[in-house]
Amino acid sequence: MQSFDFIIVGAGSAGCVAAERLSANGRYSVLVLEAGGTDRRFFVQMPLGYGKTFLDPAVNWNYKAEPDPGLAGNADHWPRGKVLGGSSSINAMVWIRGQREDFDEWRDAGNPGWGYDDLLPIFKTIEDNQAGADQWRGRGGPVHVTDNRRLVHPLTKLYLEACREAGLPLNEDFNGAKQEGAGIYQITTRNGRRMSAARAFLRPAMKRANVRVETDAHVTRILFEGRRAVGVEYRRHGGTKVAHAGREVILSAGSVGSPQLLQLSGIGPADHLKDLGIGVHLDNANVGNNLQDHLGINYTWKGRTATLNQILRPWWGKLMVGVQYLCLRSGPLSMSMNQGGGFFRTDPALARPNMQLYFQAFSTVLPKPGERPILTPDPWPGFSIGLSSCRPTSRGSVMVRSADPSVHPKIMANAFSTNHDVTEMLAAVKFLRVIAGQSALKSVIEEEVLPGPSIRSDDELIEDFRKRSGTVYHPVSTCRMGPDATGAVVDPRLKVHGVESLRVIDASIFPSVVSGNTNAAAIVTGWKGAEMVLEEQK
Questions:
Q1: Crossing angle, helix 419-436 and helix 458-468, to 10 degrees?
Q2: Which one, 131, 201, 233, 511, has least CB within 10 Å?
């Protein structure tokens, strides 16, 4: 049996950070177990290559949610990273922290040390922001953040002007003094390559003698001696192995994997576990519940001027951008499909933005089957403006459906299950047409393609966004943090309530979803969690 000080389950956004931090002083041995394989794959490293990883089982868990009444009965596709770097290796790379109020609400819910002022120094420490250091941004950290303002497609600048005409001010930094407004997204790339958590944190840690990383290692259960976690059992290359943790077991398997592993190990809703023949080690109804996620939809227009469709669709265009990328690490393939974006309020009376915008200078109305949003540009010039809700009130769950660890859990998103979420999305999609109706964009629009001009009434708009909305891949809160087990899975030190030597350090601990893309907050959670672990070592 192998023995290490710490075992980290999952080499995702938080797990990679925790591995680097816990091993940095050289005092502790760290084993990282990742169910997926290497991140050294061309389409993982190439920023726009994430379209190719959207359905690739070699790097993607390819979860499928249950048919959802809130989505007109659709069963949504849930990509999650199954690779070194986790979802940071297959995501859209947009670097958004969230709003000050998000983290202050975490703190005020009984989680000291998790307020915005507590976390801002960590955000700055981990950043190497190309835009330069200031009161909010950092330089010299492991995560390079690219400033794309000079690189975006010309149509993106027309989008920004249309937003300004619609009443949204230009925002030079969504992670700065305020989030509201329209602007260019900063993304996690460096020199034309994806800056995943594996590249930023795990790869440097792997050079240390006290770090061992095993890929293709699927952890099946946590091992206990009484209330204390002492190790894990896992499958690798057809065999079963056991690893012992002298200090702690740390779950960083994400908002699907971490609650699944807790439940498989007997920690979760007792009745549900008993029904599946799983022995109950600790009854906690919160494990797998309180699932929160951002829901999004795109509106698409046919343009009168060329978009990226005319470059990315024809063979000669693909050849051109491919050569540009291979030789110079530049061009469309070196960027995210979301070049511009923004945040706005659906009601001026709201204290802060509740909706996020995404601008894409191409369109994929006619994808191949199952390809949402795979890069199959339309044969005509098109562009899309998407949005997602910042803080939806609908709640779902992730529950094991079998005692067999290889069976994917049951994901119930319960999308648009509250009147609040339906009402704010209705107001939000109407604002997309307001933006498109401004002179800056109106002059280059031929027609609205999706949902189309015939969809006008409130009922029609609601029916449309129920049919076409889906996850924007930000699930959180299934092992949420809180001061006691009546409403949480882990305490403010990220220790699992009711047991010893077991923590969860990933986005599943978020008490509530942040207002924006979740990767930055997940990475900071890895750093903060590792700091807490190190503080308690004797």
A1: 100
A2: 233
Contacts by residues 60-63 (CB-CB < 8 Å, ≥ 24 positions apart): 60/90, 61/256, 61/257, 61/408, 63/256, 63/408, 63/409, 63/411
What per-residue confidence (pLDDT) applies to 245?
Answer: 98
Q: Kindly tell me the burial class for residue 513, based on how many C-beta atoms sit within 10 Å of its own C-beta (0-12, 13-18, 19 or more).
A: buried
470: left (phi over 0), alpha (psi -120 to 50) or beta: beta
- In the predicted model, what is the mean pLDDT of residues 27-54? 96
Average pLDDT (243-260) is 98
Mean confidence (pLDDT) of the chain = 96
Number of alpha helices (DSSP H) and beta strands (DSSP E) in the chain: 16, 25
What are 376-418's pLDDT values in tens digits?
Answer: 889 999 999 999 999 999 999 999 999 999 999 999 999 999 9
Tell me: pLDDT of 374 over 70.
no
294 assigned to active site: no
Pairwise CA distance, residues 401 & 407, whole Å: 7
At 375 the pLDDT is 60
- Say how many C-beta atoms besides its own lie within 10 A of residue 361's C-beta: 27
SS3 per residue for 486-532: CCCCECCCCEECCCECEEECCHHHCCCCCCCCCHHHHHHHHHHHHHH
Q: Which of 15, 11, 33 is nearest to 236 (CA)?
A: 33
Beta strand extents in 63-122 (DSSP E only): 63-64, 77-78
**CB-based contacts of 4: which residues, under 8 Å, 6+ apart?**
29, 30, 31, 212, 243, 244, 245, 246
CA distances (Å), origin 33, targets 22, 84, 126: 15, 10, 23
Check 272, 281, 474, 497 and give the catalytic one. Answer: 474
What token pair was written down for 262?
Answer: 């807790």
Residue whose tokens read 């659906």: 346
Q: Please give the Cα distance from 84 to 246 (Å, whole number).
A: 24
- Report, in angstroms and rounded to the nearest whole number, the Rg of the chain calculated over CA atoms: 22
256 — pLDDT class (breaks 50, 70, 90): very high
- Asked if residue 373 has pLDDT above 60, the reply is no
Exposure class string for 95-110: b at 16+ Cβ within 10 A, else e: bbbbbbbbbebbbebb
Q: Which of 252, 247, 254 is nearest to 228 (CA)?
A: 247
List of domains in the chain: 2-42+196-292+476-535 (3.50.50.60), 149-184+296-389+418-468 (3.30.410.40)
- Distance CA(155)–CA(151), nearest Å, equals 12
